[in-house]
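hey so u asked for the seq, here:
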Amino acid sequence: MKMRFTMKVLAAAVAVGLLGAGVVSAAEPLKMMTGPQGGSWYPLGGAIQNIIEKNVPGTSMMVLPGAGISNVMGVQTGKADLGFGNSVSTVDGVHGRAPFQEKTDGVRQLATLYFQYFHMVALADAGIKTPADLRGKGLTTQQKGNTGEQMTRETLQVYGLGYDKMAKVSHGSYNDSVAQMKDGQAHVYTLITTVPASSVMDLASARDIIVLEIPDDKFKALQKLNGGYDKRIIKAGSYPKQNRDVQTIGTWTHLIVSSKMPEETVYKITKALAENVVNLGDVVMAVKGLTVKDMATDVGVPYHPGALKYYKEAKVIQ
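ran it, structure tokens below
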């Protein structure tokens, strides 16, 4: 009996020693929520996964699909450790505004990455010149929980419209929407993404399209609904047969993290991303040229102490 007890103690000691040496690791992989397939977030998440796994020893990561609003809830509820967010909707969560039912006080800012543009893309032969012409038309957009869907509803609202005024409304992936537009099952496609958007380019290869403008008066009305909206220009030539600049709205894409994640882990992740940001630019053009100062841009979401520590060391935040 005594010998058996001694062997158990020795075995336990060896296991502890191996763990300390980094030979054995029982650490759970980090879970990161990204975006729907066909958009820019999913491949960008894969690039971030590669950087973290190569540069933060002992860390592995799972990349999961998601959407702007649902990612915030995923991090808040512990379904995910990290995720992409759109600042316009993440700030709604910080303050507990709709569509969130309470404050998302467990969500923290890790890094600001790039600006995303809201697109309202219509078939050129659908008789749609402005969003006011959407009454009675077929609309395709993302599922609820996606910031693009929220922006669609709010844009319709400032035009005195809503889903009930459409002939048909479909919710699905970017790929689903493109297929519906190509087949003429929908007349307008809305989404928020980078410029040029790969799904819009895919659509434009098969059908003539126009990109609808959101003028100043409607932009101001949207800002009253949500102060996080910003004005941007989709430059002429971004899409086939687009011969003029088109004004639209948009928001910042940023990387959020759970407040429960250890400070040292978040510090190492922030440092790894900052030192390998060129790899992100190779995946999503909008990230090209991103600097540490850009990453530290304040979008109205509290910083995680680990990220703040790195930005202070890098002297981009006082």
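The domain at 29-114+253-313 is CATH 3.40.190.10 (D-Maltodextrin-Binding Protein; domain 2). The beta strands are 30-33, 61-64, 82-86, 107-123, 138-141, 168-171, 188-193, 209-211, 230-234, 246-258.
lmk if thats what u needed
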